[in-house]
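The records we work with from here on pair a chain with its fold. The integers have meaning only within a learned vocabulary of local backbone shapes. A complete example follows; check for yourself that the lines match position by position.

:::
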Amino acid sequence: MTRVLMLSWEYPPLIEGGLARHVKKLSEALPGCGVELHVLTRADERSTGEEQEREGVIVHRVCQPRRPHELGPFVTWVERMNADLLAAGVELGDHYRFDLVHGHDWLVAVACEHLADRFRAPLAMTIHATEYGRHQGWVAEHPQSHIHAVESWIVGRADHVIACSHYMLGHLIDVFDRDERSISVIPNGIDSEDLAHVEDLELLRAGYAAPNERMLLLVGRLVYEKGFQLALAALPRLLERLPDLRVVVAGSGPHEASLRAQARDLGLLERVRFLGWIGDDVLHALYRVADLCVVPSIYEPFGLVALEAMASGCPCVVADTGGLREVVPHEEVGLRFTASDPVSLAEMVERLLTDDALRGRLVAEAASHVRGFDWNDIAGRTAALYRELVAGRV
């Protein structure tokens, strides 16, 4: 059995974004693939630092102060977190012999590198997104320059890199000059059982839209690169053609105030409802009651929201960019609009909401398509990569 130490800056119940869910699902599927998995992560002020075993995964938490929201202080906070994770990892290494270290993103890069060296073990890094991509190449000034430098260093240092899409594979090669032979594409996954338990759907929908209205859903962290401003810009045109449209925005983030101001300036406050952060149960129910989910990202390495929506029977309109092209094959399981173009977005939304036959076909095809993103299969591919790295074959 391969013993692996996995590092992540977030792990449920501490959730900052999609990375926590990815690490949890992957972790829980790996023991069934011959991996003894230890997850080293942080605890916040609501959690304990005690070791816990959940779903066959041994989770070790290191207590940390509340993270700052401003990016400059956050970078300093990340450096302190890495020092604490490293100290905890060294102590774990006194009790266990780890065959491999697997880290997720730049946030744990320093601790991962030092621990892999100390254990004389291979280092695998999953790069979920890059600062270069998030900022469209504008990484010349601090703190973006610091984050980009850390990413460049750890992508070069890792023995092997995992990318979530072929788009990200090309991105890592272009931005960091990484050899394609040392990168594996292993996608994110979906667990349909997580989306299955939904109650009182009619009551939930009634809180957002009348029976004769149509409900458009936007989900994700409210940051510029998610493109929610494009969806709002498309709404005046859409409302001229579809006056019964209601929009629900589920998520929080630093761009929220700007989006609310945009909605106000466009006279959309009566049609757009901002929910802020919501738990998974409510989110999964929203997918089921919405008529359409729009993913208008400017930069999107994968596109988990689209995958979740399709698995819930909610048709999608997504930007023709990044990993979304792989998650949503155009006109097979969803529709794609020209990225960063509100007019194109509006046209595709109108097309989908006014063509019942198209909607039905896309929903049916999507139900089959999402089965290709099964966590057990993804864990099996990851475990096979671990074994090859430990054996020195890649």
Remarks:
- The longest strand covers residues 35-43.
- The chain has 15 helices and 14 strands.
- The mean pLDDT is 94.
